[in-house]
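Obj: model holo form, ligand = zinc ion.
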Amino acid sequence: MNDVKSFRKEDVVGKTVIETSGTIRGEVKDVLFDLNGAITIVVEGKDGQDWQVPIRRVTGISDNVIVGSEPTTTATPSGSGASCKFCGASMTPKERWCPSCGRSQT
Ligand SMILES: [Zn+2]
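Output (holo structure tokens):
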């Protein structure tokens, strides 16, 4: 049973989201997908603020949803456009959510 497992939305919504470092980040509220096949988990943080986690950051789903820690990749600074105020990833000014760490910029 090492095959890639499929999950239903119901399998993850309501589960606790924990970083690999052990930090509890909140609870899964919803699952988003787009037509490019990108899947994002919406987490309701403990502070009540929504937090979006790209599925590629999820490392495991069992009783809890395990996500990798904040990416430590060096952000590519671009001359134009804004950057995430949390992780420094470059993003377009109109983006509300950082494409790298998924945090709200508002
Ligand atoms: Zn970010």
